[in-house]
């Protein structure tokens, strides 16, 4: 286990990326991400625009990898490919969640009777 830690921290010397900063961005961003997601869900239920919140979610999801891409030096090409794939997945996932929340917010509530049922019963 000790050799794994040594290897991990040696990466910072080779690639000029501080693992502590990456960890803070990664782990520290989780509560902020969840808070923005809750904020976005609330706004979606209120049928208000959620573009700002969606943009923040995407930014928070890619921030640690953006740090590596910007400040890393001598990184192998596969690292950039992996970062691009993670960013792409983050964007896709966020867009999917936003569309789902908007659809749920626009659909009629299940606890309210449907107009069609009331009309069908009258005929």
Mean pLDDT: 81
Rg estimate, integer Å: 22 Å
Helix percent band = over 70%
Query: What is the string of SSEs from the N terminus onward?
Result: HHHHH
Instruction: Please state roughly what percent of the residues sit in beta strands, choosing from under 5%, 5-15%, 15-25%, 25-35%, 35-45% or over 45%.
Output: under 5%
The total of beta strands comes to 0
- Counting helices, strands and paired strands, the structural category is mainly alpha
Integer count of domains: 1
Quaternary structure annotation: single chain
**CA(first)-CA(last) distance:** 74 Å
Instruction: Describe the global form.
Output: elongated
Brief overview:
The protein has 123 residues and is mainly alpha-helical. It has one domain (2-122).
Task: Give an overview in words.
By secondary structure, the protein is mostly helical. It has one domain. It is built from five helices and no strands. It has helices at residues 2-15, 19-45, 51-71, 77-106, 115-122. α2 (19-45) packs parallel to α4 (77-106). The longest helix has 30 residues, at 77-106. The protein is elongated. Keywords: Membrane, Transmembrane, Transmembrane helix.
Topology readout:
Layout: H1 2-15, H2 19-45, H3 51-71, H4 77-106, H5 115-122
Helix pairs in contact: 2-3, 2-4, 3-4
